[in-house]
């Protein structure tokens, strides 16, 4: 697993720097003040951008995106769908069993006067930690970067995952600490399932629906 990190060191340096910076902010600035500070630059264009970007963390996106890889390799499909499913279950366990009383920013609106909110967003109030959307987007996008196996793929998709995670703060659906926690879950899930399926030698995992259909046609 450490070899995967070493081979994608550029992306993981980016992740480590942003994660460390995030934890420094959480430690140095009170939670509500930090949330207002991070939401002090709203514009109409950014409202539209982050409302769309946050969709990358939806479960339906993860499932549909994973299913596309059935036409490439079954190995990739199982990596993605299990990374999403297992990390999502872990996030829900933490939300509902370990941290059920942690509230979202919407529960503190009366203590954050002047907070910029995005029109049309249905704000949730409970089950804040960790961010499920962030968990999903890191679990899926980071793993996609591994699969693409291109020089800057992990770096670019890691950056995109961070933006999608921060959309949860921008939309006031989560605090920064929720995003940091969700990112850790997603990263470890992506690493584990890529490592596990990459070392598997089962030949059927390298088949695809396209390949099976082609063999039936020309049989």
Number of helices: 10
Specify the structural class.
Answer: mainly alpha
Radius of gyration: 19 Å
Give the mean pLDDT.
94
Helix-strand string: HHHHHHHHHH
Assigned CATH class: Mainly Alpha
Major beta-sheet overview: none
Helix content: 55-70%
What fraction strand?
Answer: under 5%
What form results from the Cα inertia axes?
elongated
Strand count: 0
Separation of the first and last Cα atoms: 41 Å
Oligomerization category of the chains in this entry:
single chain
Low-pLDDT segments? none
- CATH architecture title: Up-down Bundle
Output the CATH topology: Vanadium-containing Chloroperoxidase, domain 1
Number of domains: 1
Any key phrases for this structure?
mainly alpha, single chain, Vanadium-containing Chloroperoxidase, domain 1, 10 helices
Structure, described:
It is a single chain. The chain has ten helices and no strands. It has 219 residues and is mostly helical. The protein has one domain: Vanadium-containing Chloroperoxidase, domain 1. The longest helix is centred in the middle third of the chain and has 25 residues. It is elongated.
